[in-house]
Amino acid sequence: MDLHILDHRLRVTSISKNGLVHFTHPLIKLIFLRNRTRCKFFSLTETPENYTAVLDEEGFKELQPSEHLKVEGSIWLPLNVVSNGNASSSSQAVGVTKIAKSVIAPLAQQHVSVFMLSTYQTDFILVRESDLSVVISTLEEEFSIFKEVGGESIPVHSQDVSNGLQKNGREAIQPTVHPVLIPQNQFCVMSLDPATLPSIATTLIDVLFYSNSPKEEDGSPSSQGIKFFSFSLIDGYISLVMDTEAQTRFPADLLFTSSSGELWRMVRIGGQPLGFDECGIVAQISQPLAESDISAYYISTFSFDHALVPEEDIASVVDMLQDQRKEPATS
Amino acid sequence: MDLHILDHRLRVTSISKNGLVHFTHPLIKLIFLRNRTRCKFFSLTETPENYTAVLDEEGFKELQPSEHLKVEGSIWLPLNVVSNGNASSSSQAVGVTKIAKSVIAPLAQQHVSVFMLSTYQTDFILVRESDLSVVISTLEEEFSIFKEVGGESIPVHSQDVSNGLQKNGREAIQPTVHPVLIPQNQFCVMSLDPATLPSIATTLIDVLFYSNSPKEEDGSPSSQGIKFFSFSLIDGYISLVMDTEAQTRFPADLLFTSSSGELWRMVRIGGQPLGFDECGIVAQISQPLAESDISAYYISTFSFDHALVPEEDIASVVDMLQDQRKEPATS
């Protein structure tokens, strides 16, 4: 398997709900007007708490400093696992499950924080630029590692990077087991031909920027659902994650999903905002999913993490999470 | 002929060029998301100086006070001349020319300020609410006057309104003759089925909100042209005024104009911003146009007035304006 360190230097930011009006101008540019910006990596996710924007330095330049904008201090680099045809895994699972044992678990053991961003097309594993040497030395046994520079893939090895030492040799500590929330709504993970993005512009703008102002005829929020909507435009590929209620607002013939009618349920991880320094959060949920071979998308946001599992597996995932939450008390 | 006082109470505002980013959120709502607003009268015109927004009270509520927003202090009411089938005029001219003698000239004589807003569909004559009694007593000889209230047209007479006296009996003073500018670009006045507005959303957003940020590949402004773009959505009807350069950016099959290839040239009136209190500016240009039976659209903005005359008539209009500018010196 190959691991690519992509040629994007990313910032992770959050925009407050009230502050969105001040960022509508740059965000619409980043979403719809590709020939006005050099930004190549853009992701915007609405959660009940805020909007998380992950974007490269060209995109970040568009956001003016504001009391409504929080910026995580680090530069993050996206990693991407590319199956080079001779993958030995017999797993049919997709998403973060596929990389749980090979990437997520080893990085957690080395106390490297990861910020996950699953899309329709692939799963991006964001790591801090300052952790890169640890990442490379940790993963080079399992992977051929390449750094993408200006469209070319250049092999890298731990001796190439300034500090090849392990980040720390601490004993594995018992990780915090975070509370989880299982909202009732069903989600779909979709894509769209970028050429047809203009056709859904007004709907997408309405959903992203005006969904908090009640419509004249319909002010009632869906019961027991969670507000969650994610749009990303990365290297020209569009990915959308939305619940089935939002999906009804889009024309059915333009958005497509990998298999018809595939629906996902959400596990939101964290009772309090998780921050960016704790390690092993993704590992904690992806490892048991991998053991059960259950597919999962995983989307980190500024405050919480979100796993999406197939609807038919949600009962067993809930059981698994309950077991996990009992164990610390009994051990 | 009938004159209708429409059921809209309007504000005339300007947004600074630098301030537009702060108003993108409400303006996009007013243009594209009709079911999120009760605004029924909305017009936005970009000029080199600023953006002029004319909108009813529901629309005005969407604009947050800001150092970038100037608001003319009055409530303005739109008047509309409706031909009731037995019009005696033999004129083929359209636009403000048609109402120059019957409306514009008498109001100027009574020192009533007007703010004109020609659209693809009709010409709105905006007058201050405080001038309404003068307007009615001035125009009721020529017109049957109706006030639209909740969808019904109610006849009004000068004795119905609180103050039927003429505004003032001052002698006609020699009006200021303002300098004019004749830009080189050609304009078209177009419309669009509101159902197809979403299809041009990204292009319209780009032109309206991002035309000042140079594109990567093309940062050169057109030579000798003036930046002028007007969009209005009034009672469900869309009107667009743009130059032929902007027109090339829109799909040719969605925008329509009254006769194919009809092009207009602009006369911008005013060397310094005109303000709102001077009377007779529209009359000064529309009367000679009426005498020559030359059609004209007329669009007032916060700083300047703009007449659009047919391309084939621009030479005679220029001659006419030069004569007008010589007369005060020789009289």
Automatic annotation (TrEMBL), chains A, B:
Keywords: Cytoplasm, Phosphoprotein, Ubl conjugation
GO cellular component, one term: cytosol
Protein name as catalogued: Cytosolic arginine sensor for mTORC1 subunit 1
Natural source organism: Takifugu bimaculatus
InterPro entries in UniProt: ACT-like_dom_sf, CASTOR1_ACT-like, CASTOR1_N, CASTOR_ACT_dom, CASTOR_fam, CASTOR_mTORC1
Presence of the UniProt keyword Ubl conjugation in the record: yes
Record Pfam families: ACT_7 (PF13840), CASTOR1_ACT-like (PF21389), Castor1_N (PF18700)
Top-rank taxon: Eukaryota
Compartments, record wording: Cytoplasm, Cytosol
GO MF terms, alphabetically ordered: arginine binding; identical protein binding
